[in-house]
Amino acid sequence: MAASEQLSLASRSVFYSPEESTQSISYPIFMSANYQYAGDAYDQVVDGARRDVNIYSRCGNPNEYKFDDQMAEIEGADSALAVASGMAAVSHAVLGLLRTGDHVVVDLTTYSSTHEFFDHRIQDFGISVTFVDSSDVDAVRAAFRPETRALYVETIANPTMKVAPLRALADAAHEHGIVVICDNTFASPVVCRPHEHGVDVVLESATKFIGGHNDAVGGIISLRSDILPADWLEQIRWNTLTKLGGALSPFNAWLLLRGIQTLPLRVERMSENAQKLVAWLDAHPAVRRVYYPGHDAHPQRALAAEQLDLPGAMLAFAVDSEEQAARVCKRLELASFAASLGGVRTVTQLPATMAFLDIPEEERVSMGITQGMIRVSVGIEGIDDLIADFAQALEA
């Protein structure tokens, strides 16, 4: 087999070596919670080679290991660690890195649960947080302190579609030995691979584009860094994951591994649909504004063109009020009005009154989240059918 780095992303996504004991080209499901200490397994565990031995599924299982390896392959990472959800990826990465007295700089516009994690929970551990607009590199630099340990950003912000200048941020942070953590969920590795832009730790809610079918929940942490030790993720496995209990189940790992194989096809179709839907929405009289990295009016349009391989499948648009936005979403028939994103079916959401409902209105406004905003995760439907659905929903 040719060296993996010589293969395209599409080929790296679809290919992995057959399972050794059966030579199955579709990796089997190992639905076991416990494993026998056979042969020299006990001695290996005692000697510290725990990653090489199946012990107990909270510590790791063959399906998780295979998913880890495949995600590292498509993220361009040195290693990866799967966990039970996207928020588990956030919490395990952050708690595995930061200690009492540390300081972290966080982009102001992050996913609502992430924002609340940094605004409330993490500070219970004596870790201080400064929120800043990560599109302003000078503002980020000004927020650094001697005790700053990490910078946390999103490749494409949820739900405003703001694009973070990853290379400039990484360069600024690394001058001070600061670790850069990037949530790549809105992009997926098909749209952007943050490790290639200097990011140390990349997080994905694998529930979204990686799985792609709204039927599995999981998260992934990947590592490529000159700052963190090569075994940092294994340290998190044994010091954080096994203690907090955020393990990924074998069945979900199997579903997510299968999802990787069609990821490029799905995201390419979704992005193509999104660009056409954006052009249609932009011309509609009821639409006040469109938010999309590929839109000419996007504040970071040039950066997006340089940093993203595709404009992506996520967009938002605004109508006059929350009442109008709710009517539009309720009238949709082909597209769904629901939570989550990244699946094969188009899904709409009202960020201000759904995902960000628990964020105070003043903070939502500072993030750029308005009452009339509708977030859209574009699926793989026929684009003419999708546009017709939005047309009838916007009629009123």
Automatic annotation (TrEMBL):
InterPro entries: Cys/Met-Metab_PyrdxlP-dep_enz, Cys_met_metab_PP, PyrdxlP-dep_Trfase, PyrdxlP-dep_Trfase_major, PyrdxlP-dep_Trfase_small. GO terms for molecular function: transaminase activity. PROSITE patterns: CYS_MET_METAB_PP. The keyword Nucleotide-binding does not apply. It comes from the Bacteria. The keyword Transferase applies. Keywords: Aminotransferase, Pyridoxal phosphate, Transferase. SUPFAM superfamilies: PLP-dependent transferases. Pfam families: Cys_Met_Meta_PP (PF01053). Its cofactor is pyridoxal 5'-phosphate. PANTHER family: CYSTATHIONINE GAMMA-LYASE, TRANS-SULFURATION ENZYME FAMILY MEMBER. Belongs to the trans-sulfuration enzymes family. This is Aminotransferase class I/II-fold pyridoxal phosphate-dependent enzyme. It comes from Microbacterium capsulatum.
